[in-house]
Queue: 3 jobs
Job 1
Amino acid sequence: MLFKICGLKEINTVDCCERNNVNFFGMIFYKKSPRNVDIDNALNLINFSKDKKIIPVGVFVNEDLENIKSLIAKLDLKTIQLHGNENDDYINSLKINTNLKVIKTVSVQNISDFKKLNNFNKNDYFLLDYKPEINELPGGNSKQFDWSILKNLKISKPWFLSGGINISNIKKIKNFANPDGIDLSSGVEETPGEKNIQMIESLLKKYHEK
């Protein structure tokens, strides 16, 4: 199982994730989010992770194409997550002549939303997340969709499950689906944007319990 923890802003949190064998850490470049980071903060986190196994991921929401290309270059990002309405052409233009890996988020409310997966060929991973209401953030809302609709779901690419995952429900995922990865954010926070090391460690320990 791959683990990704999103919305990191502190070096000690990245260090905790590394020690607990988390595979990816997400840095959110979306100013409306309480988890937003600036370039200097992101560079500090990326530099800290360079001699480690954990992979930094830049998370963007409907970012201007030239702006995102500039940020990818400045931060030397190898993996990004697109959490807005970006289409396959947008992804393709980012990947041309690069080894960039792209995680594409698809918002899910009911089974019909899975049809949107067919609109993408250029991404490397999918991330299935709760579908936000009009007044909600694109992600990190502490809400989950109905996991029972994941039964018998077949996806041609590796995929992450996200949305409202916490210590009380993480073991229940196995009852409904077998994702390639689990993406965490609000479920390991004291308050929005403030990750808690003990919560991270406890949740991962809970998942791995027999």
Job 2
Amino acid sequence: MKRKKSDAEEKSAKHRGDPGPKISLKVLADYLGLSPATVSLVMNRSPVANSIPKTTQDQIFAAARKLNYRPNFFARSLRTQRSFTVGVMVPEVSEGYATMVLSGIEDHLLQEGYFYFVASHRHRQDLIDEYPELLLARSVEGLIAVDTPWHSKLSIPVVTVSGHNEMKGVTNIVLDHGCAAELALEHLANLGHRRIAFIKGQEFSSDTEARWNAIIEAAARLGLVIYPELTTQLRGDLATPELGYRVTRRLLAKHGQFSALFAFNDISAIGAIRAIREKGLRVPEDISVVGFDDIQGAAFQNPGLTTVRQPLRKMGKIAAETVLIRMSGDRGHLKEIMVEPELVVRESTCAAP
């Protein structure tokens, strides 16, 4: 026989924030004065729900939050014979590029009522090859690959972020790297910088080649010389300032005469600033530093980091929107969706000494 909770237990449950008894769809519908069918269409985000007024949809979601109504996704999957699940592949989950893109993906998938699996491959080719099949085995209906070389042919919609590979059935979300390079180099040139050091990305990064080619073209248009001895490349597969710190120390030890440095990303720029200071030089008075990405911590560095902003959360959101549209059966997808960068000028750059 089930024991009735005491008053003390009831108060304790309320204090802990326990949700209490589960609210049924009929109770929610009665509360709203709507039919269960209407509420079900909206809560399950059925395509037919698009014909229901937006104000009514908003009222339904607001009431669901107030009454703590949770749809039964397992029953929904059985009823529709769909998993409502998306697979996401990222190099790693750590501060920086991939995490910010992932946050945009999460925002949209959660909003739309989709579950998702996240798999980190650490740039290992065996995992990049195996994970798509593993995710398919878990009944994902679409896949998003972030900063991941893509060569697989799958039976489900695939969207890549900075994939740079033309594959049939794949939509790629990319940054306008030509514009990004122009923004950064023009900013430095206008400040009088002519000897500029460059930190290239790792060979395995999807953006490395595209961004470097864009820098070469932008430098030629602006009349800037790229000195081979002032060009270095990140080594290692971890997103840590240590990598930028190491290569900048080597640059300063061998070829210390440069007035500006353009780093592959903000993480390496932060490491570079540490190395410059350890050399007894000042940022930006002796060497200006420009990063790339505009991660959350860039504005709070000392000095605040001048950087080329990628709209990373927006790119993740676009990727999630695109994969869901394609999962709905839309076959008129674009091969490429390009987003625009923005130069954010802070305190790490100034006029050349």
Job 3
Amino acid sequence: MFDSIYSLSVTPGQFFLMAAASLLSGVLFSWMISFRVRARRRYFIVLSVLPFTVGMILTFVSGNIGAGVAFGGAFALTRFRSAPGTADEIAGVLITAASGVAFGMGYIGYGVLSLVLLGLAFTALSSVKLFDHASLQEERLLMITIPESLDFSGVFDDTFARYLRSAESAGVKTTGMGSMFRLSYRIRMKNPAEEKAMIDELRTRNGNLEISILPCTESMTAL
């Protein structure tokens, strides 16, 4: 079961066995993590076929240096444009691609086992609060847009002292073609129920421009 099914030359039966095993286990893995990963349906379709795709490539170029070089050159000429993925999405792609290597080398048992075990581990670890820390869950990302003319050094300090337990600057960037600044802070509220009152007070300072409060897990895409 855990020996390679490939001999010196790949027979049609061996190839179709690899295809069936990789596609079925890919679909199973995608279904398992779909309960924990928030992504579009198309993402899980891609994960389902990725093990077979990688396995097929390795099957065709295995032992053929010329084919490997040709495939590498064609791959290098292709540009992929996509939105940055979350850690969950990237992990799913890496897991399915790694299992595809096992399938491409003929190790069907290892490929299926890796997808099933990693799918179970991913689901189990996502279900328990092993890595959840209360202090991090309370942290929010506050972004305040201000006009270019406003000196933002210490302008919100009294408001922060009134509503926040802590406020740490997370960066400054220009926006609106340089006509405005966007200030980012990592904050912890004293009382989450006072969030609206704090925003209303901040609006009087920034000229009623945009203010947003987001979970810190979204900080990378928001900044």
